[in-house]
Input
Amino acid sequence: MFMTNYRVCNRVFNRVFICVVAAMLAFLTIGCKGSGDPSTSRKNGKDFLKCADVGGDGQLEKINLPPLTLVRDGQDLKISGLSSSIVSIGLMSGIHELTPQTRKNVQYFLEQFKASKVQAIIVVGGVGKTKAQITEILEFLGNAPVPILVTPGAQESFGALKAVFKNLKRKYPQLVDLTQVRRVLMNQVNFISLPGYFNPFYLEARGQGCSYEQTELNSLADLVIADKANVLLSATPPKGTAPDAPDLGRGNVHIGDPALAAILDGSPIKFGLFGHVYESGGNAISKSGPEALAQGIWHPSMYLQAGSADALPVQLVGGGRTAGMAHIVDFSGHRARYRQILAR
Output
């Protein structure tokens, strides 16, 4: 009798144990999905992190930034309370490190953004490599009382960037991590982020740097909203052919991503704000190209190179030099216009 009861109890225990283990594994699998921990990959002999969160963490949070209200639902962020139907944003890239002169540049750009009453500031790459650099830059940008939308490019370490966002979240709730938030809605505009740089060879943080693959490019279609003006935010510009394209680098060579160009070619995304190729700073063309787009005029599509906010002089492929550049970009309906700001 004792042995019979023992065998029965043992079988029950084993079944319960198996069920508990299975439940724990299921919990861990579900809990890790969309947690923000990127998968690793390898391309052209280089390791990198795929930092574009394609699942979302499913969390809901609300931030009051009077007169604005920010509501995040997983990878979607809705910004409401805008006082104008025109969506106006300040655009920067390539801050890199707050040297005294670069600090003056960024301060001047923030003053110009404030005077123009921008409703958000977008930074498409170049916010520092180390945790200390990223902290200093994001704290400085946090002086602006509007949402600061930041996506990494070729410079940032993903681990350092995520740690800084976590540390600064309480003090600067307006800082928005565009590896976690992939879609930002502001009135009629849908901003879509594509974090990282397409070529891992140029990632300064090496294996901790952010890149992407075809899977992430294909997922952009899921972030498009048909009746909105869809705007891609990425340090990586698409590979172009026009002399005023935002990817024209030194030697007049187009160094953008051909895979991104192919995806955008058949996409309803008609606008793009890009970084990294600072030699083409201020270059703007229509999606179909090849004509250059003039400042201050409304355009039905636009690809714009943000240029570098850094004080380090850059020789522009179109002629001349800059030692700090930013832009103000307005959206009205399904049109956009831009204005360039040069450091003093």
